[in-house]
Amino acid sequence: MNALEVLQNRVSITKLTAPAPDERQLIEIFKAANRAPDHGKLQPWRFLVVEGEGLNRLSSVFVDSVTSTGAAISASVLEKTKNMPFRAPMILVAIAKCQNHPKVPKQEQLLACACATQNILNACFALNFGAVWRTGELAYVQDVKQALGLEDLEEVIGFIYVGTPSGDVPAVPDANAEAIFATWPSN
Ligand SMILES: Cc1cc2nc3c(=O)[nH]c(=O)nc-3n(C[C@H](O)[C@H](O)[C@H](O)COP(=O)(O)O)c2cc1C
Predict the structure, then answer these.
(1) Sign of CA dihedral 140, 146, 152, 156
(2) What is the pLDDT of residues 69-112, one digit of tens each?
(3) What would the mean pLDDT of 131-158 be, rounded to a whole number?
(4) Under 8 Å CB-to-CB from 1, ≥6 apart: which residues?
(5) Does 110 contact ligand 1 (Cβ within 6 A)?
(6) pLDDT (tens digit, 9 = 90+) per residue, 161-170?
(7) Where are the beta strands (DSSP E) in 21-170?
(8) 133 in ligand 1 pocket by Cβ < 6 Å?
(9) How far is C-alpha 37 from the chain's CA centre?
(10) Ligand 1 and 60: CB distance under 6 A
Protein backbone atom coordinates (compact mmCIF):
# COMPACT_ATOMS: atom_id res chain seq x y z
CA MET A 1 0.00 0.00 0.00
CA ASN A 2 1.27 3.44 -0.79
CA ALA A 3 0.76 6.31 1.68
CA LEU A 4 -2.51 7.47 0.17
CA GLU A 5 -3.92 3.95 0.19
CA VAL A 6 -3.06 3.62 3.87
CA LEU A 7 -4.71 6.95 4.70
CA GLN A 8 -7.83 6.15 2.69
CA ASN A 9 -8.28 2.59 3.91
CA ARG A 10 -7.28 2.52 7.57
CA VAL A 11 -10.01 1.06 9.73
CA SER A 12 -10.25 0.38 13.41
CA ILE A 13 -9.79 -3.29 14.18
CA THR A 14 -11.09 -4.56 17.49
CA LYS A 15 -10.41 -8.31 17.26
CA LEU A 16 -6.71 -8.44 17.96
CA THR A 17 -4.30 -11.18 18.85
CA ALA A 18 -0.53 -11.73 19.16
CA PRO A 19 1.90 -10.81 17.83
CA ALA A 20 1.99 -7.14 18.63
CA PRO A 21 4.68 -4.96 17.05
CA ASP A 22 8.20 -5.83 18.16
CA GLU A 23 10.72 -3.23 19.31
CA ARG A 24 11.96 -2.48 15.80
CA GLN A 25 8.42 -2.04 14.51
CA LEU A 26 7.53 0.14 17.50
CA ILE A 27 10.40 2.46 16.60
CA GLU A 28 8.96 2.78 13.07
CA ILE A 29 5.53 3.50 14.54
CA PHE A 30 6.80 6.13 16.96
CA LYS A 31 8.85 7.78 14.20
CA ALA A 32 5.51 8.30 12.45
CA ALA A 33 4.06 9.74 15.68
CA ASN A 34 6.89 12.23 15.85
CA ARG A 35 5.91 13.69 12.46
CA ALA A 36 2.68 15.17 13.78
CA PRO A 37 2.21 18.91 13.24
CA ASP A 38 3.43 20.62 16.37
CA HIS A 39 3.06 24.35 17.09
CA GLY A 40 6.19 25.54 18.86
CA LYS A 41 7.87 22.15 18.48
CA LEU A 42 6.83 21.27 22.00
CA GLN A 43 6.44 17.58 21.21
CA PRO A 44 3.49 17.39 23.59
CA TRP A 45 3.12 13.63 23.47
CA ARG A 46 4.52 10.51 25.04
CA PHE A 47 3.36 6.91 25.01
CA LEU A 48 3.43 4.04 27.48
CA VAL A 49 3.81 0.57 25.97
CA VAL A 50 1.81 -1.91 28.01
CA GLU A 51 2.02 -5.64 27.32
CA GLY A 52 2.44 -8.94 29.17
CA GLU A 53 2.44 -8.41 32.94
CA GLY A 54 1.72 -4.74 32.28
CA LEU A 55 -1.75 -5.68 31.06
CA ASN A 56 -2.42 -7.47 34.38
CA ARG A 57 -1.27 -4.35 36.23
CA LEU A 58 -3.50 -2.14 34.10
CA SER A 59 -6.44 -4.47 34.76
CA SER A 60 -5.85 -4.07 38.52
CA VAL A 61 -5.63 -0.29 38.14
CA PHE A 62 -8.97 -0.25 36.29
CA VAL A 63 -10.66 -2.52 38.86
CA ASP A 64 -9.28 -0.49 41.79
CA SER A 65 -10.57 2.67 40.15
CA VAL A 66 -14.15 1.47 39.65
CA THR A 67 -14.34 -0.09 43.11
CA SER A 68 -12.68 2.74 45.03
CA THR A 69 -15.66 5.07 44.80
CA GLY A 70 -17.70 2.79 47.03
CA ALA A 71 -20.61 2.98 44.58
CA ALA A 72 -22.54 -0.24 43.93
CA ILE A 73 -21.16 -2.05 40.92
CA SER A 74 -22.55 -5.19 39.28
CA ALA A 75 -20.51 -8.36 38.88
CA SER A 76 -20.79 -8.08 35.10
CA VAL A 77 -19.45 -4.51 35.01
CA LEU A 78 -16.63 -5.55 37.28
CA GLU A 79 -15.78 -8.50 35.02
CA LYS A 80 -15.94 -6.31 31.91
CA THR A 81 -13.64 -3.74 33.53
CA LYS A 82 -11.19 -6.43 34.61
CA ASN A 83 -11.03 -7.87 31.08
CA MET A 84 -10.69 -4.58 29.20
CA PRO A 85 -6.89 -4.56 28.85
CA PHE A 86 -6.86 -8.11 27.48
CA ARG A 87 -8.67 -7.18 24.27
CA ALA A 88 -5.27 -6.87 22.58
CA PRO A 89 -1.73 -8.08 23.23
CA MET A 90 -0.50 -4.47 23.52
CA ILE A 91 -1.89 -1.13 24.62
CA LEU A 92 -0.21 2.16 23.86
CA VAL A 93 -1.33 4.76 26.36
CA ALA A 94 -1.31 8.08 24.51
CA ILE A 95 -0.44 10.92 26.87
CA ALA A 96 -0.67 14.60 26.02
CA LYS A 97 2.35 16.17 27.71
CA CYS A 98 0.84 19.61 28.07
CA GLN A 99 2.65 22.61 29.48
CA ASN A 100 1.69 26.19 30.19
CA HIS A 101 2.99 28.11 27.20
CA PRO A 102 2.62 31.79 26.31
CA LYS A 103 1.79 31.10 22.64
CA VAL A 104 0.52 27.53 22.41
CA PRO A 105 -2.68 26.91 24.35
CA LYS A 106 -3.34 23.54 25.92
CA GLN A 107 -5.99 22.83 23.30
CA GLU A 108 -3.39 22.97 20.52
CA GLN A 109 -1.10 20.67 22.46
CA LEU A 110 -3.95 18.15 22.84
CA LEU A 111 -4.63 18.40 19.11
CA ALA A 112 -0.96 17.82 18.29
CA CYS A 113 -0.97 14.74 20.50
CA ALA A 114 -4.11 13.51 18.74
CA CYS A 115 -2.35 13.94 15.38
CA ALA A 116 0.62 11.94 16.67
CA THR A 117 -1.79 9.25 17.83
CA GLN A 118 -3.54 9.16 14.45
CA ASN A 119 -0.12 8.72 12.83
CA ILE A 120 0.32 5.68 15.09
CA LEU A 121 -2.97 4.20 13.86
CA ASN A 122 -1.91 4.73 10.26
CA ALA A 123 1.59 3.35 10.83
CA CYS A 124 0.14 0.23 12.49
CA PHE A 125 -2.16 -0.26 9.52
CA ALA A 126 0.73 0.22 7.07
CA LEU A 127 2.63 -2.52 8.93
CA ASN A 128 -0.41 -4.84 8.75
CA PHE A 129 -1.22 -4.51 12.43
CA GLY A 130 -4.68 -3.73 13.67
CA ALA A 131 -5.39 -0.95 16.12
CA VAL A 132 -8.27 0.86 17.75
CA TRP A 133 -8.35 4.07 19.76
CA ARG A 134 -10.44 3.80 22.90
CA THR A 135 -10.99 6.07 25.85
CA GLY A 136 -13.93 5.55 28.21
CA GLU A 137 -14.21 7.27 31.56
CA LEU A 138 -11.15 5.45 32.92
CA ALA A 139 -8.98 7.58 30.64
CA TYR A 140 -9.99 10.64 32.61
CA VAL A 141 -10.05 9.65 36.27
CA GLN A 142 -7.36 10.89 38.60
CA ASP A 143 -6.46 7.57 40.23
CA VAL A 144 -5.78 5.94 36.83
CA LYS A 145 -3.70 8.94 35.73
CA GLN A 146 -1.77 8.75 38.99
CA ALA A 147 -1.17 4.99 38.71
CA LEU A 148 0.19 5.53 35.20
CA GLY A 149 2.57 8.21 36.48
CA LEU A 150 1.08 11.25 34.78
CA GLU A 151 2.23 14.73 35.79
CA ASP A 152 -0.28 17.44 36.73
CA LEU A 153 -0.70 18.95 33.25
CA GLU A 154 -0.71 15.64 31.41
CA GLU A 155 -3.82 13.94 30.03
CA VAL A 156 -4.52 10.44 28.80
CA ILE A 157 -6.05 10.97 25.37
CA GLY A 158 -6.41 7.35 24.43
CA PHE A 159 -5.72 3.70 25.04
CA ILE A 160 -4.56 2.41 21.65
CA TYR A 161 -5.17 -1.33 21.45
CA VAL A 162 -2.71 -2.92 19.02
CA GLY A 163 -2.16 -6.42 17.67
CA THR A 164 -2.60 -8.69 14.70
CA PRO A 165 -6.11 -8.77 13.22
CA SER A 166 -7.68 -12.06 14.27
CA GLY A 167 -10.59 -11.92 11.83
CA ASP A 168 -11.45 -10.19 8.62
CA VAL A 169 -10.43 -6.56 8.38
CA PRO A 170 -13.68 -4.54 8.32
CA ALA A 171 -14.66 -3.01 5.01
CA VAL A 172 -14.07 0.71 4.65
CA PRO A 173 -17.42 2.45 4.84
CA ASP A 174 -18.46 4.40 1.76
CA ALA A 175 -17.65 7.98 2.59
CA ASN A 176 -18.79 10.80 0.42
CA ALA A 177 -15.72 13.03 0.20
CA GLU A 178 -17.68 15.60 -1.78
CA ALA A 179 -19.95 16.18 1.22
CA ILE A 180 -17.22 17.45 3.52
CA PHE A 181 -15.89 20.39 1.60
CA ALA A 182 -17.15 23.44 -0.19
CA THR A 183 -15.53 26.25 -2.07
CA TRP A 184 -15.65 29.53 -0.17
CA PRO A 185 -16.94 32.01 -1.06
CA SER A 186 -19.58 30.00 -2.84
CA ASN A 187 -20.03 32.43 -5.71
C1 LIG B 1 -10.61 10.41 21.13
C2 LIG B 1 -11.31 9.15 20.68
C3 LIG B 1 -11.83 8.30 21.62
C4 LIG B 1 -12.51 7.15 21.24
N5 LIG B 1 -13.00 6.31 22.20
C6 LIG B 1 -13.63 5.18 21.85
C7 LIG B 1 -14.11 4.27 22.83
O8 LIG B 1 -13.91 4.46 24.03
N9 LIG B 1 -14.77 3.18 22.42
C10 LIG B 1 -14.99 2.92 21.08
O11 LIG B 1 -15.61 1.91 20.76
N12 LIG B 1 -14.54 3.77 20.12
C13 LIG B 1 -13.87 4.88 20.48
N14 LIG B 1 -13.39 5.73 19.51
C15 LIG B 1 -13.72 5.48 18.09
C16 LIG B 1 -12.91 4.36 17.47
O17 LIG B 1 -11.53 4.53 17.73
C18 LIG B 1 -13.11 4.30 15.94
O19 LIG B 1 -12.59 5.44 15.32
C20 LIG B 1 -14.56 4.15 15.54
O21 LIG B 1 -15.04 2.94 16.04
C22 LIG B 1 -14.76 4.18 14.02
O23 LIG B 1 -14.00 3.20 13.39
P24 LIG B 1 -13.01 3.57 12.18
O25 LIG B 1 -11.80 4.21 12.82
O26 LIG B 1 -12.73 2.27 11.51
O27 LIG B 1 -13.74 4.51 11.28
C28 LIG B 1 -12.66 6.85 19.87
C29 LIG B 1 -12.09 7.70 18.91
C30 LIG B 1 -11.42 8.85 19.31
C31 LIG B 1 -10.79 9.75 18.27
Answers:
(1) negative
(2) 888 999 999 999 999 999 999 999 999 999 999 999 999 999 99
(3) 98
(4) 9, 126
(5) no
(6) 999 999 888 9
(7) 45-51, 90-97, 130-134, 154-165
(8) yes
(9) 17
(10) no
